[in-house]
UniProtKB/TrEMBL annotation:
Keywords: Cytoplasm, Hydrolase, Magnesium, Metal-binding. One of its GO terms (biological process) is dCTP catabolic process. It is an enzyme of class 3 (hydrolase). It catalyses: dCTP + H2O = dCMP + diphosphate + H(+). InterPro entries: DCTPP (IPR025984). This is dCTP pyrophosphatase 1. The lineage of its organism: Eukaryota, Viridiplantae, Streptophyta, Klebsormidiophyceae, Klebsormidiales. GO terms for molecular function: dCTP diphosphatase activity; magnesium ion binding.
Amino acid sequence: MDQGAAAREILPEATSPQTAAPPAGDPLLPVTLGELQELQASFAKDRDWDQFHSPRNLLLALVGEVGELSELFQWRGEVPRGLPGWTPPEREHLGEELADVLLYLVRLADVCGVDLGRAALRKLEKNAQKYPVDACRGSSQKYTAYQEAEAEGSKS
Ligand SMILES: Nc1ccn([C@H]2C[C@H](O)[C@@H](COP(=O)(O)OP(=O)(O)OP(=O)(O)O)O2)c(=O)n1
């Protein structure tokens, strides 16, 4: 049984055309990329939306959702980590937009025949070779020293 079928067996309503998406705090957690891929594929199939899920359409939908995500940060200035001051509804909205981006990305990879998990792991490996720890730690120290010198300079 594939991962998506297993997911649907645990929670059949997750992909039913008549019902909403899985509720929060659901038994599918923690979820894998493969399970999300299967759930997204079933979502589209159930609605006869496969015809619209072409690579180009999905890419445009993905970019649209990245735009919606960007709007949440627009005009706020720098936003510290942990998003202090953001209200629960704002945080929920952020989660929704991030999810839209992820779901379209997973679907795009699927219809393009790319194993996203494998590709991401390969890319992590490549990144690690391109940016060796020692070289980067050295340069971030240099960067901190540079920032301190700049701050000192702006005081005088
Ligand atoms: N043809 C479609 C339409 C929607 N979805 C899914 C993927 C996204 O997770 C979500 C996007 O739905 P909407 O287009 O309604 O966009 P939003 O949820 O962002 O709504 P809104 O634009 O009103 O904020 O639904 C999909 O897979 N395929």
